[in-house]
Write a sequence for this structure.
């Protein structure tokens, strides 16, 4: 595929967003395949599929924590890089990219070592039982071997996209996903490795993606190359990267916190069955939030570049376009999920009891799904424009201040039990989404009306 570059300074804002967002949305879809395909195959392992799926679900918080660090550095450094490109300061943009790479590598090594040392008590704390721990332990031990590959592929791919190479960024994920799809059944069933095979397929796939990213960013086609001279960490740049990336980190970190709280609470009120149901619901949620993530990630570098260029009118157009698409899509998604809940649960497991208990849980969990669009839109604008403190606050507000306490308290109210855990999500979407979006409208739009160009 030809490395087509989108020039964010030219043409329609809508076209620029679509040119980046379409391949990025496809990339997000393919990225899901790393874990989704694993879960589909794992849920169908003869005799032990339900327990194995639940065991892998217990690993999600650890995997989410690793991903949080790729967001901390990648989502912090890439908007700053795009803004410097908009200002015409390519030297600083290269420095930001190099510092981000160093942070990803160093952190990846530390996370892998810490994970190997403490995975057993952590998994039990995250909701594993004596029945599910063997599967969770097998999966995470192998997955941790690929931590460095995950950090590089997910953390550096935004620097390909922020240079306008959306199709190349898509290929990063496409190549890895293709390997994963081929290797999964071979390792899981062909070599009878079970959950270890699923994890090994993911590690090898991420390795291939990481090699692809590094090859492009050090090659001649990239506008900004990853250079050795830019790898030396400098305090000011590190602080800027972490400051802006903190909101994405907090959002992902608190997702892990919520997953832990949900698993622990569900284990207490409903046992392994409901931990398995939450694993399925999280998987369905990832599928349906993927297009929203793709469009927000596609709009982000366009907004960052034009904000750096002081083309505020284009930034306002991008915000309106982004919000409209996200709201319309999430309304449609809510309708589809309401009409066909059983279909989406069966994608991951066909156990009759899990399906019977899972359908009412799905209706509760996805109620008012459209309000999530407001959180995504507002958050994306704050990050793209470098509003680090506001972005971090609203990341923390929805998950840590609303969802986590509700997950603990609601099951105790009115005999809600496990249903209380599922109700925490839609309530947080309503309160957190509206608060984030309204604040964005009241604080960002007045600033953007002071257009100078």
């Amino acid at each position: 595929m030809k490395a087509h570059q989108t020039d964010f300074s030219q043409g329609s804002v809508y076209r620029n967003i679509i040119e980046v967002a379409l391949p990025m949305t496809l990339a997000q879809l393919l990225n899901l395949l790393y874990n989704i395909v694993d879960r589909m195959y794992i849920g169908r392992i003869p005799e032990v599929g339900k327990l194995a799926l639940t065991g892998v679900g217990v690993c999600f918080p650890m995997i989410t924590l690793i991903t949080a660090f790729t967001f901390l550095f990648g989502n912090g450094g890439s908007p700053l890089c795009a803004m410097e490109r908009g200002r015409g300061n390519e030297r600083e943009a290269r420095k930001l990219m190099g510092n981000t790479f160093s942070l990803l590598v160093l952190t990846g090594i530390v996370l892998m070592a810490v994970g190997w040392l403490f995975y057993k008590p952590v998994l039990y704390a995250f909701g594993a039982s004596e029945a599910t721990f063997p599967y969770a332990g097998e999966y995470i031990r192998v997955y941790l071997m690929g931590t460095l590959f995950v950090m590089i592929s997910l953390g550096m791919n935004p620097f390909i996209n922020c240079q306008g190479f959306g199709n190349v960024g898509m290929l990063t994920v496409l190549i890895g996903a293709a390997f994963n799809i081929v290797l999964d059944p071979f390792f899981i069933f062909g070599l009878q490795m079970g959950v270890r095979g699923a994890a090994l397929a993911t590690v090898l796939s991420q390795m291939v993606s990481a090699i692809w990213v590094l090859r492009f960013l050090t090659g001649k086609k990239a506008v900004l190359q990853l250079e050795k001279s830019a790898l030396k960490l400098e305090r000011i740049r590190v602080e800027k990267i972490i400051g802006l990336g903190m909101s994405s980190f907090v959002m992902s970190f608190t997702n892990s916190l919520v997953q832990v709280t949900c698993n622990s609470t569900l284990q207490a009120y409903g046992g392994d069955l409901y931990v398995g149901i939450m694993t399925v619901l999280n998987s369905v949620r990832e599928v349906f939030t993927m297009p929203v993530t793709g469009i927000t990630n596609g709009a982000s570098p366009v907004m960052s570049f034009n904000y750096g260029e002081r083309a505020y009118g284009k930034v306002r157009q991008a915000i309106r376009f982004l919000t409209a698409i996200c709201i319309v899509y999430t309304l449609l998604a809510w309708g589809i999920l309401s009409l066909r809940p059983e279909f989406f649960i069966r994608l991951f497991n066909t156990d009759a009891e899990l399906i019977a208990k899972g359908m009412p849980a799905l209706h509760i969990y996805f109620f008012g799904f459209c309000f999530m669009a407001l959180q995504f839109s507002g958050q994306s604008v704050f990050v793209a424009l470098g509003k680090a403190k506001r972005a971090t606050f609203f990341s923390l507000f929805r998950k840590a201040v609303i969802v986590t306490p509700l997950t603990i308290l609601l099951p105790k109210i009115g005999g809600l039990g496990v249903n209380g855990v599922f109700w925490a999500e839609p309530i947080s979407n309503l309160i957190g989404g509206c608060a984030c979006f309204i604040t964005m409208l009241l604080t960002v739009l007045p600033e953007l009306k002071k257009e100078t160009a």
Remarks:
- Residues 13-448 form one domain.
- DSSP finds 15 helices and no strands in the chain.
- The mean pLDDT is 82.
- The chain has one domain: 13-448.
